[in-house]
Amino acid sequence: MLNKIKSIAITVVSFVCLSFIGATTSYDSSYVQISTVKYQGSSYNVIYMDRGGSGKRIKAKYFAAKDKYSGKTVPQRYHAWSKNKNIICASSGTYMNSFDGTASTTKTVGLTIDNGVVVNQEIKQNTMDGLVIVYATGGIVATDLKNKDLKVQGGNISGIPLDLRGNSLHRQSFLEWGKDNQVTVFQTHLLVYDNKLKISSSNSSSSSRERRFLAVGNDEDGNLIHCVIHSAANTTLYDGADRVLKFLNNFKDMSVVFMVNLDTGAQDVLKVFDENGYVMPKLKGQKTIDESVNLLVYYYE
Question: What is the pLDDT of residue 269?
Fold first, then answer.
């Protein structure tokens, strides 16, 4: 009888221990709020991250393509990099040139640099006005390519307004700067810039689908906020962006510096973790990370 009781006790303890394997404190929840919010008839899943905290503990990483030298795919690179990282969320990023179900035969659309390696130097001329720069330090900035006023620090182009679409010398110098500074760059639809909607019903796709956006701005106290907002309801890109801007302005008291579109089409990837490191099963995309072609990741350090 005693041996049977011991056996039961060991089984219970083992079950309890196994249920907590891999679940360590992932991030400080005072910097991250994950919620589902209803606003003016729309429901949003919001990952609200305060990057203005002490030491900028919230950081971003972007995987744009298969590694040029090792041949590792984006999922392989992510899994190797993410070991011992405190991941907040991972989402599909910008658009691809095609998709046939395998991550090895596709690449990003528009100007792309991956950690200093040029992936695609062909800049989109008449669409996708947003150029996003992810720094090795974990920060993200974006520019409106129509303004022809991108400025970077360092090298022989430091502080010079760059016209990446109209000036081939500017573009080549920018690519060299990207290599030297190991930055990651991708091009996508710019939806909001300087707190103003940059898309209209006339130039938006008429297709209706679920939408996901990345917004960066300042809250009412001036703190730097990064937001991933997912809208499960089917809307056009224009309607979705218009509603989300109003939601951020009025409900979140956030002035949006820029907002760009994240792909929810063929590579709809979204994986979210709570503050204890557990996957949040209700917040997920249609595809898994192992099917991703490019990936935007936020983590806590």
Answer: 95
